[in-house]
């Protein structure tokens, strides 16, 4: 059965590849600083000769940005911002997302499930839409879609966090009590970082409204051989049944900042922590922020695994994932490997994994965090997307940042990479579908999908090609460089088989449009064509120097490839956003079925 690429904007692009699709490892998606692109999404893949059936499900919406692990402090706030020059379209309230997590305003780390409620703690600036005055805001949900804002959970109140409460994680103790471990800044200027702990004041309160900090904070202080300004983001802790010790990781850098490091700390009582002699893992990547370390089933099961419930005899059926956020490159990457608890070492299965950089997402996605959801026995991934316009724009809007929609994550049957898919709860927001079926798009033509009256939509589409004879030859110099290939062969460059796909967030006259498209190439000496998937946002906005707050999340090849993109339309907003199917290739393309749903607006923190 053919798979489907889906694209969502306030949701996600998703496109599991068809059964005859054979994808090359790994996909390449890059940001092009030299040209006005959003987060140009490129993928080179292979497909058997013959009829090509590509299911591509797509959705888009208007997004914001989440506060992340980038600790840039701005002291001159709104009163000093020159907001009068901000274009009206930038501050249009319709550019706020509909169903991505966001606070009512301003700048927006540890998700968890407790007593029937999902809890999301996030870094938030209550005083403005820029990075500073960071506290841990708190929202709760029954379904990860509808959110209710509660009181601030953690804010600076002790010497160990007087100058900031930064990222951290939640851990559930054996008796079910949740604990938060977080980074505190205990000195001004140099941002000296230590790790602190907080407990719920009343564990019988399922909302966990109040948190207290014990007197023995900080519980982890950097040793003299660690750069105290690069020592943050403790992970969820795990309890090893073999020796009764808790373990957690703290992200850092070594060798003058050139190596990323995940230090292991152990404790018997969750109060006194000691560093293990060697790091769990390190690599020449620069500083590691927001590390995440968790088990996954190696037999292709989609169910998640609780970090604390991996029995000794079960470890042969388990792999581990180590994810790090690269402070220099501003994206998340991960490796899949083996964890030796006795030696406290993690070894990637791919010896070059720290060079190849498998990514959760090949777009705008950073500082991610997973948690185990016992209610549905799944592992859920959260990540945030930052703004790509200016700080003055953020101030004028009064908000900055979004969370990507939660994704279920599990290990592919091959054991080589992760699969991701939007959580099933998102589909409950679909309503008022419109369809386009059995429609042939001839060379150089396009067709509008009518009936949608919103920019917040979820779209699934199946394309069919009867022949690949017109496929262009693939330039060997570009065969392993999807970035350059997408740049050279954009959506408006006519070809043989393709480019064909969707124009999303398009204005009525298509003056603004963002293309998500495919192009097929022949490979010399092979009967397997190469299929390139790209997004081209070079015409996404008439605003000068704007090419990335609308967001589109794309999920392809059954979840192997994900892209969070964003554009800043000035015309294609809300009911003025149009959807088209286009074909700029010589070969006719058939739309077997396209279904587009409008997406209902959930409860979102009172916004």
TrEMBL record:
UniProt xrefs under CDD domains: GH32_Fruct1-like
GO molecular function, one term: hydrolase activity, hydrolyzing O-glycosyl compounds
This protein's name: Beta-fructofuranosidase
Source organism per UniProt: Digitaria exilis
Glycosyl hydrolase family 32 C-terminal domain sequence ranges: 425-545, 552-598
Transmembrane portions of the chain: none
GO biological process, one term: carbohydrate metabolic process
Glycosyl hydrolase family 32 N-terminal domain boundaries: 100-422
Keyword match Signal: no
Assigned protein family: Belongs to the glycosyl hydrolase 32 family.
Annotated keywords: Glycoprotein, Glycosidase, Hydrolase
InterPro entries recorded: ConA-like_dom_sf, Fructan_Metab_Enzymes, Glyco_hydro_32, Glyco_hydro_32_C, Glyco_hydro_32_N, Glyco_hydro_beta-prop_sf
Gene3D superfamilies: Exo-inulinase, domain 1 (2.60.120.560), Glycosyl hydrolase domain, family 43 (2.115.10.20)
Signal sequence, start to end: none
